[in-house]
Amino acid sequence: MSLNGNPLRLVVHLPSKILLVATPSSQIALLLPSLTTVSTLRQFEEALRAPWEAVVLTDELPELSPEAALRLVSHQRPPLPAVVVGTALTTERTMALVHLGAADCLDTGRSEALPESIEKAVAAAHNRRQSENEQARRTEQSRQEHRTLLSVISRIRHSLDLETIFKTSTSEAHNFLGTDRVIIYQFDAQFAGKTVAESVRPGWTPTLGADIVDTCFRESRGSHYTRDRIFTIDDVRTAGLTPCHLALLERFEVRSSLVVPIFQGGQVWGLLIAHQCSRPRVWQPSEVDLLHHIATHLTIAIRQAEWALLAKERQAREERDRLLVVVEAIRQAVGLQAVLGDR
Question: What is the pTM of this model?
Fold first, then answer.
């Protein structure tokens, strides 16, 4: 590209870290002077030690073909987007270059399209990295959720003490979710209730030991809770709650809540609740799943603890009955000896 015999320079705003593999007198270097040019294999290998946003490869260097350069680029982490500008770009060669990792291939006669091609390659690489980072974040979150759940299950299984079980469950859920409060709320026969365990950040009003009367729930007797129904409220101020329910939540500075019912014998035993007090919060599926899994294992743990308590009480009664039999036998023996002594 030239005007009156002089090469044109494109006025474009490319990323600042673009590496060009070409001769010093390359038309591309003159076209886009902001690119950093290397002209030997050694220079290219040394340049790859630095971070770049993209690389432009040409077939101007006999010792470093685009194919050879792509093989070197393929070892870069994170992957470095590459655009090839060359001659004799047949369909077969283009496909081979793309297979080696080229983001785009341009014939030398289409050099004016290079800036757009570079920008697209950089944008695609950026989007790919974002997608990979998001996937990695989700994978790590899933692993952390799994580790947390295994920790809760393991500690629950090693205890038949409900206080320990409740404390473990609220503490682990609190740490994983990063909420302001996690509680276990138990109902009585009249569907009044109390907090039996709580893990809460300093600065927020504790619910443990507080007098909590939810007249709305008492009137419904928990009929709106089913085993598969979980309640999420992102913002209590815009959720259309009844005045009595909203007043109760605001008393404890609740701005967002996640509620999972705990069942025993087909009836609602209580609730496992996460509160965000500092701000509204959109609850993620992984967070809902974690709390649901913990509630499920709480159901099992409560049943086992109650069975263990019943077994202990039954054993105590049996030991008491055996002791009474022994005492009665001793009493009768003492009485018999007294009678024989009188004779």
Answer: 0.60
